[in-house]
Amino acid sequence: MTTAVTDSKPDDPRADRRTTPAAEPAPSLLRAWAAPQGLRATLRVPGDKSISHRAVMLGAIARGTTEVSGFLEGADALSTMHAFRALGVSIEGPNQGHLRIAGVGLHGLQAACAPLDCGNAGTAMRLMMGLLAGQRFSSTLVGDASLSRRPMRRVAEPLGRMGAQVETDDGRPPIRISPGPGLHGIDFALPVASAQVKSAVLLAGLYAQGTTRVTEPAPTRDHTERMLGGFGVKVLVEGASRALSGGQSLEACPIEVPGDISSAAFFLVAASIVPGSDLTLEHVGINPTRTGVIAILRRMGANIELLDPREAGGEPVADLRVRAAPLRGIEVPEELVALAIDEFPVLFVAAACAQGRTVVRGAEELRVKESDRIAAMEAGLLACGASVKATRDGMIIEGNPGQRFAGVHIDSRGDHRIAMAFAVAAQRATAPIEILDTANVVTSFPNFVTLAQGCGMRVVARHD
Ligand code: S3P
């Protein structure tokens, strides 16, 4: 991979950072230790994973050519790209974050000749379930060991109500989808606050007769609705409900993927807890359905500024400046949980370095992510000497502003966000922390080690 760019003007002083740095090979182990001084840099995290998946999916079923920039060249989004190639869509790239998708139109996908491999990506599998439920051919979706344990009935069930033929293995992958007599719209109240389920039902709704309406119990990320709007689909927003009528065609449009706030979160916490730090994270997506991490950290006393807020490709973005600050424990408001759902592993690290107690409730979804993140973080933080207690739906953390974590081995359980959270914790450790089973860091953050080293974090990768 090279580092040239096409979307910045040659005289743009930030041009050299508007790049997709070379991906690193998947690390089998990360070794991380205390940063000797403050973290200081201006850096750009890779493209948003949620938006990258959706760009491929909607570009594929649009009419015309969709040009994507800032695409996340991480394993998860690449699984989606490969799946759509297998469904007969011609996709050029990725080339420094650029993709050119030759859309085949709403009814132009073709049967794949083998099962579609979603790898580690729950978003790929759940959203594709919705999209493939409306096709006139059969599909099989498979995933890796982690994805094969994750709950899929939450999607299969509403799709079944729409008339889809979706089989699971007792609620888990593999998923078999067969063509049925056709889909019809439903009015569906989501039992869990899940953007993946909401998106799957809306995507199936494109192929359904009549109107499909989903109502969420709490706001979740709205990238699907926004992007559908960009492709010309009318999505009706009424309070907590989103509705669309079937049969609307999508017209290709350019998509600019902003930096992923979920990846930026590791640096927001690292800079907050390493004294003397001052980091600027450029061009990060600040969609209000994703900024729970900033709201929570600010309540804890973090010093985070949003610089130059602007709009890019239908999504709000800003540069985030974060400086070290003393943190205090808080009761995390439950309404912020879904808006920060992927950031809790590293937020627990922040809480362990804060003055006083932090309580997280209403976050039971963490138990069914790439790992049981409540159990994985409790085990890891306890091993490091922190005072934490897992609850059914969250965590209670007795913080210590003078926190020095012990140098231990941590099992990341193959979960990218657990691995990176402990690389951040290690910046406040008394001895190196070795994090095992870290290959999946490349699912969401293929250049994590390079960027972390570039800002002064002490972390190295082993590959074997
Ligand atoms: C995602 C939604 C979230 C999140 C996941 C990505 C998406 O899952 O955890 O990493 O892109 O829609 P749920 O919506 O199931 O909570």
Core attributes:
464 residues, 2 domains, UDP-n-acetylglucosamine1-carboxyvinyl-transferase, Chain, 4-stranded mixed beta sheet, binds shikimate-3-phosphate, alpha/beta, 5-stranded mixed beta sheet, disordered N terminus
Main beta-sheet annotation: 5 strands, mixed
Mean pLDDT: 95
In CATH terms, what is the architecture of the largest domain? Alpha-beta prism
Q: What is the CATH fold-level name of the largest domain?
A: UDP-n-acetylglucosamine1-carboxyvinyl-transferase, Chain
Rg is 21 Å
**SS field, number of helical segments:** 13
Number of domains: 2
Cofactors, ions and other ligands in the entry? shikimate-3-phosphate
Instruction: Name the CATH superfamily assignment of the largest domain.
Output: Enolpyruvate transferase domain
- Tell me how many strands there are: 26
Percentage of helical residues?
A: 25-40%
Unreliable parts: 1-19
For the termini, the CA-CA separation is 22 Å
Q: How much of the residues is beta strand, in percent? A: 25-35%
The CATH class of the largest domain, by name, is Alpha Beta
Structural class assignment: alpha/beta
Globular, elongated, flat, extended or rod-shaped: what is the shape?
A: globular
